[in-house]
Amino acid sequence: MRHRLAVIKNFYGAAPLHLLALAVCFALAGYATSQTLSAPHWPWIFVWFAGAVIGHDLVAFPLYALADRSLVRALRALHRSPAPTPPLVSAVNHVRLPALGAGLLLLLFLPVIIQRGRPSYTDATGRTQQDYLGHWWLVTAILFAVSAVVYALRLGRALHHRRAPGDDPTPL
C-alpha cells in the first residue's frame, strides 16, 4: 500500500488526499457553474464576478499589501535597538488578524452599515439599520483587545522563559 501511495505521490507531486480535495473542488465549481448558467441573469453574474476579480487584483490587493508592508516597517522601526536582536514575540500577526477580521466584517456588512436599502431591510426584518456601525466598531475593538491580550500573554511567557546568560537551569 505504501508503495502505491509513493508512486502516486511521485507521479502527481503531492499526496493522494490533495488530488481528491482538488477533484471535489472542481466538481463543486462545475456544479456552481451549471447552476449559474441556467439562471436567466447569468451575464450579470459574470460581470459582477469579473468586476470583483479586477477590483481585488488591481485595487484592493495593492492597498492591503502596502498597508501590510507599512505595518512591518513601522514595527521594525519601533524595535530598533543598539543590539540587533529579534523581538521575543512578533507583533505583526497580532495586528494583521484583527485587521483582517474587521475588514472582512466591513466588506460583508457594508450595505447595512451605510444604510443602503433601508426600506427593504425594514420591511423584510422589522428592524432598523441604526446599530450596525456601532456594532462593527465594537466588534473591531474587541478583536484588537483580544489580540492585544494574547500578545501580552505570549510576551510575558517569552520573558519568563528567557534565561539570563550564566544562569544554570539545573537545580542544585
Please explain how this structure is put together:
It is a single chain. Helix 4 (92-113) runs antiparallel to helix 6 (132-161). The model has no long low-confidence stretch (mean pLDDT 86). The protein has three domains: 1-38; 40-77; 86-161, no CATH class. 2% of the residues are buried. It contains six helices and no strands. The longest helix is centred in the middle third of the chain and has 38 residues, at 42-79. The chain starts with a helix and ends in an 11-residue tail after the last helix. It has helices at 2-12, 16-37, 42-79, 92-113, 118-125, 132-161. It has 172 residues and is mainly alpha-helical. Helices cover 76% and strands 0% of the residues.
State the end-to-end distance.
Answer: 53 Å
Q: Structural class, from secondary structure content?
A: mainly alpha
CA-based shape: flat
Largest sheet: none
Q: How do the SSEs run, as a string of H and E? A: HHHHHH
Computed CA radius of gyration, to the nearest angstrom: 25 Å
Determine the strand fraction and express it as a percent band. Answer: under 5%
Low-confidence stretches: none
Mean pLDDT: 86
According to DSSP, the number of beta strands is 0
Total helices: the number is 6
Helical residues, percent:
over 70%
> How many domains is the backbone divided into?
3
